[in-house]
Structures are given as structure tokens and as C-alpha cells.
């Protein structure tokens, strides 16, 4: 029976882990967000995030799971600076964020590629907008990002000429190309078939082990959440709250074989129960 | 009611969708050319045997002869040059002004709210109804001709450009914002490239309408150019000369549409 570490143990683990890492990458403190919708008769408001606090250490891979509509995308968008919030604060490297920043990049749920740009120019998009590099430097950076996600040879294809899995890899490469301190991934593999999904998970994991880039990865899929994460964060809906955080005790450099082990499956089951429980209690 | 339902049902069932052989491009071209040549031969035979009155219908051979004469005495080249100037000026203005107005209408919502009803009203007004007024405002001559061409051809350019520019994908805007794009960046990297197919479609319509505009303008103002040639020849029952003029317009329309189609395919390479 695997042990589920709750928040306290998680923090202990992290504090021992991160002695050499720079000051905490991301801190979300008491975040609150209310959507106001103007109806025909009266305007309604919906508390989507309430008292959400989360910190992510540099180099950590955190997965965020929760039922559909519990506010995962909203939380991610707040961190990305794409959505404003009502209460609390979000800090990167100790400084409050104001809108999007060059320290963060988003891997979108739908690949959101620009259909009139080739793969290469899609990957270059973020770098072009930042205007900090010469086109020669951009070309070089793009080539290595494309190679990183295994798309060499497809650079001059248009998005409609490659598969859905490849489009997601372009989506990933575009974010990695700007070398952000924090990568925000919103169910990037949600729309893919099981086989493509597994192979992309393995590639992402290899990448994460190599690059050690701080990542928040949103998913519905508990299996995926455990397989990829250093720490799994559970959200519950109405209003969206963080109910549990669980450190995954398997170390890095994982392989598929891990998913066959009893410990892995016990942890998946426990998380599933926690998720069902938390929903039932709402 | 019951009968029509049954009839259409039978029609569907009897249509064999499975075995519709497709024909190759070269076969198509060959068959098409055969159709045109067959028509020309029939026409010639009908005219030569007196089956139809060739005073009214002319004949392919008579048209060819008329063309040779009109080219040799310089009438046709001069007419074409004159029409080309009207076309170029009118279509050129429609293109430049239409693209600019369309871009502004598509991008600035407030401007759109103010100007859109005005544009729609102008678009709905039949240009031909304005011809006498255009005479009052611009006289009879080149400027009136250009105004007519512009009025007939500019609206598809404006409306298609505006529609293309304003139809930006919200997800693409978020993407741009996440990389700190400015408004100009969004316009440059998202709205404009996304609008290209719609803009090209507008230009294509504008092109065809400009040709129609040239004919109308030349009929109405001074009988100049190829339009004038057709008008005066037909009045004096020189049907062969008139048909030479018609052929010039038809050939020009085909050529321009073909050229634009080629450009369009190049620009649309990224679409499925
Ligand atoms: N722009 C908006 N205006 C009003 N309400 C919104 C808006 N966006 C999201 N919501 C509401 O906020 C809640 C959380 O939405 P969110 O997209 O963050 O959920 P999610 O956890 O990402 O769901 P999923 O897993 O299905 O993607 C939902 O109930 C949704 O109806
Ligand atoms: Mg979501």
C-alpha cells in the first residue's frame, strides 16, 4: 500500500529537496476569482476560485487534477496573466505578476497553431513577438526546439499537413522555444488517442527530466497525473479549491514499467477515491 | 405531398452514387475544346447555308475577318488601350481604397458601427440609378467612367476585407497575448494573414464587376473604348465588329480570373 503524503509531508519533502534551487518559482496566495455574468433579468455571479494557495518550486513538475468545470483552466489562466482575479496574489520569483510575462509560457488545450504559418514559423511565433533575438538566433533556437519534440523533417509543413499528436508537439515546442521559467500546460493531451497520448507522455517526461523546467500540467486523467508528476494537486469544485496535495514517491527517470507496478496503481486508486469523495462532499 | 416524397425517394434510390467515374484533367480540356469548336462549326454552317440571317448573327469567319481589319487599321488596339486605362484606374482605386476602408471597418469596431449602415445603404443602391446624377457631378467623360467602375466594384472588396479582418479566432488572440503581443502585433500576425482568403475572394468579385463597370461606363459616357466599339457597331448593324468587342471582354475576364485563381491557390496553400 503506497503512502499518500498530504500537504505537510509534501512541504517537508520539498524543503529538503530545494536547498540548492533559487527562491520559490511560483507562489499563489489566497487566490479568489468570481465570474460575473449579466443575465437578461438579473446578473449572476459565480465564485470559480476561492482561497487557492499553491507554491511550486523551481524545477518541480506539478499536475493539477479535478473534475470538469472545477476551475483548473481558470487557475492556469490567472497564473499565465491571461485572466484577472479578484482576491489574493500571484508571485513569480517573489514579485507579483501583472499580466502575461516572458517568464511564463502556455501550452494550450487546443493546439492553437496559426494555420498559415509552417511548423517552423509557428514555433518561432513567441520568439518573434518578444523581439529580443536576431532572426538567425531565432532560427537556431527554433531548430533545436523542433528537434527536442522530435519533429525534425516537418519544419516546413503546414499544421493541417501533420497529425493531431504532432500539432500538440508543435504547441509544446513553441512554449519551450522561449525558454520560460514556468511552463503552463492545459490538458495538452486531452484530445489525443490513447497510444499517441502515451508516447507523448513518455517524451514529455524525458524532456522534463533533461530540462528540469518548472511545469504545471492540468489534466483529467489521474493515471497521467501520477505518471508525470513530482506532486499531484487535487481541486474540488464550487467554488474551486485545492483540497489535497500528494507527493509522488517514485523519483524521476520513470519508465512505462512503473505503471504496471502495484504501488503506482494503488496511488492512482487512492487519488481516484479522494477525488470522488471530495466531489460527493460538495 | 405523399407523391412528391415517394418520387424523390425513388430518385435518390435509383441514383447510383458508387460508380461515378471521374475524368482526367486532360480529357476534360479536350472535351471542353471539342464543345467550343463544335459550336463554332455549327454556327458557321448555319450562317453559310442561310439557316440563320448572318446580318444579325454574323459568323465565326466574318468575326475573324473583322478582327483582322480592326487590328490592322488600329481601331481595336486604340479601343483596348482606352478601355484598359478606365479599367486600371477604376479597379486600382477600388482595390486600394477598398482594402483600406475594409481594414479600418474590420479592425475598429466603433468606426464600423458608425460607417457600416452607410456602406450598406450605398451598396444596396443600384449604381445604374446613379448614372444621371454622376453625369451632373462629374460630366461626361473619363472621370465619370472611373466613378462608375469604382462604385460598381468597390463594395465586395470593402465587405470581404472587413469580414476577414474582423473574424479573428479568440484562441489565437489569447495565444498572441500570452507572448505579450501589442494590438499592432495581433493585427499584423493574426488578423491580416487570417483575412487573406476572404480578401482575395473580394478582389476576385471586384475584378469581374470592374469589367462590367467599364462596359456600362463606356456605353453611357461618350462611347469610348471597346464598349463604345460594341455600341456603335451594333447600332450600324456591324454585328461582326460588335462581337469582336464582346470577345475581347470575355477573353479579358477569363484571363484575369485565371491569373487571380493561380495567385489565390498560392496564397491558400495553408488551407486544407
Ligand atoms: N469566461 C467565463 N465566463 C463565465 N464563466 C466562466 C468563464 N470561463 C469559465 N467559467 C466558469 O468557471 C468554471 C470553471 O471553468 P474552468 O474552465 O476553469 O474549468 P476546468 O476545470 O478547466 O474545466 P475542464 O476540465 O472542463 O476544462 C466553470 O463552471 C465555468 O462555467
Ligand atoms: Mg479546462
Automatic annotation (TrEMBL), chain B:
Gene Ontology CC annotations of this record: plasma membrane
CDD domains, A to Z: TM_PBP2
Family matches, as Pfam families: BPD_transp_1
Keyword terms: Cell membrane, Membrane, Transmembrane, Transmembrane helix, Transport
ABC transmembrane type-1 domain segment(s): 80-260
GO biological process: transmembrane transport
Protein name: Amino acid ABC transporter permease
